């Protein structure tokens, strides 16, 4: 029997492969040339300082010293035995937890209340968002002046009602809550805008279907709104947590970590050890512990707010 075989595919001339290969190589080089400057900046100003800081943390690295002595993990052992470190860690944790929770709650409430479009709501949104665009150092200076017990506006108001002037930033029991209040006041507008964008992205038919099933009020929030904005909540929570653990400008301008280390955070402690005591090895160890803490918390948040497309 004769077998019918499929006609062989026409072979491509070898001359056509070479131009294609050369075009691919040329495009690859063009891509690397465009990305090269950005990659160089990242390597020089981000990647290299990160690696160098870890190298510093393994030495007794001090400016002006003739020899940078190798210590291994001694800086980390010293760190975990330092009561000032544990105080700074506690202050940072309290600041992060309280400020993030308050910003999420108040930001969600503001976004829900200002969700409808209109001239008045747009004006109120602008008022909420305005402090966000002001530098932290400026905000800290303004509030430090306002809360001054001698010449501050707040003290003037309280004394006019016959009440004593309160040293909000001079009292160890009040300094941290005051700094947290200022931080929340400044950043709640950012949280409101992000959550407002998430709320506007919730499909209306989900609410209609839930109402047909008898859901009302808080049930709509629990079973429709919150699951629908889970990606937005994840983004907002991670950004707020990272910023809270890295807080420096506001604390340094308002209290410089005082009084009696009651507002001393990990970053202010790192700044003090590095740029006042010139112990860059110890300061680098603090930085790497802070980095590890933020990585662990980010992993936990990714786990808690995990979502699938089928959700």
Question: What does this protein structure show overall?
Answer:
By secondary structure, the protein is mostly helical. 70% of the residues lie in helices and 1% in strands. It is built from 13 helices and two strands, in the order αββαααααααααααα. Strands 1-2 form a two-stranded antiparallel ribbon. α4 (119-129) packs across α7 (172-200) and α8 packs antiparallel against α9.
The share of residues in extended strands comes to under 5%
Query: How many E strands?
Result: 2
* Element pattern in H and E: HEEHHHHHHHHHHHH
Task: Please outline the major beta sheet.
Answer: 2 strands, antiparallel
User: What class do helices, strands and sheet pairing give?
Assistant: mainly alpha
The gyration radius over C-alpha positions equals 28 Å
Give the end-to-end Cα distance, rounded to a whole number of Å: 60 Å
Q: Can you count the helices?
A: 13
The strands making up the biggest β-sheet line up spatially as: 1-2
Overall spatial form: globular
Q: How is the topology of this model organized?
A:
Layout (H helix, E strand, L loop, with lengths): L13 H44 L1 E2 L8 E2 L3 H7 L2 H31 L5 H11 L6 H11 L6 H8 L11 H29 L3 H9 L5 H11 L1 H16 L3 H6 L11 H11 L3 H25 L7
Antiparallel strand pairs: 1-2
Helix pairs in contact: 1-13, 2-13, 3-7, 3-10, 4-7, 7-10, 8-9, 10-13, 12-13
